[in-house]
Amino acid sequence: MLRFAILTVxxxxxxxxxxxLSGPALAEAVRARGWEVAHTAILPDDLPAxxxxxxxxxxxxAYDVILTTGGTGFAPRDVTPEATRAVVERLAxxxxxxxxxxxxxxxxxxxxxxxVAGIRGQTLIxxxxxxxxxxxxxxxxxxxxxxxxxKLLRGDQSAEQEHRKA
Length: 166
Fold this sequence. Notes:
Elements: E1 3-9, H1 11-14, H2 22-32, E2 36-43, H3 47-59, E3 65-69, H4 80-87, E4 90-91, H5 93-104, E5 117-120, E6 123-128, H6 132-142, H7 146-154, H8 158-165
Parallel strand pairs: 1-2, 1-3, 3-6
Antiparallel strand pairs: 4-5, 5-6
């Protein structure tokens, strides 16, 4: 079973001025696939706080996948991709490219996404949009490859056999 942490990035939600709808929507989508939501949190759009939290969570080895929601656009305080790039050791551009390509079929605003995905240790970090609908849609785009990705990151020998079947 995959273990997820979900981090909502929103100044207003962090201050309690707006209900976080994206985090719970993602948690519901993760659980619907039979996966575990091990932790959720809300942080403001603050680069040092995001960077430190992502690094700490990935280094804890408590989560296979960290999903962020929010902070991926063009607004001056949208710094989630920068925080993610600061902590990952390797980028996983195919994931963000696939999400943008699928989203582009829905809205031209997908071109404005700066979301990234990457690997720190054996943890995958994926940036998702801040809209609940878009966050879940983007997760659905990549969900089918996540179990295999985590097997590869963990050095699971069965991952090699899955390549031969494909």
